[in-house]
Amino acid sequence: MNEIEMSAIVLGMTEVAKKFGLTSKWAPVFAIFLGITISVGDAFNHGKIEWFSSILKGALIGIATTGTYAAVNKFIAKARG
Question: What is the pTM of this model?
């Protein structure tokens, strides 16, 4: 699984969690945790578990997804005026 697919999964699952009551305050923490979990699981599935790189990759996916979502929301809000 590549980073784009992982990012889409993290974004989608975070939005679903928010629909079930996850507050916006905890959404970035959830996204990072989910990114780490998916990245480690993907590495384990391929039989090449490298803990440090998998955890780092997952954390970066969670952070990037959260930042991109926030930037797009701010842009849309500004465009609507």
Answer: 0.87
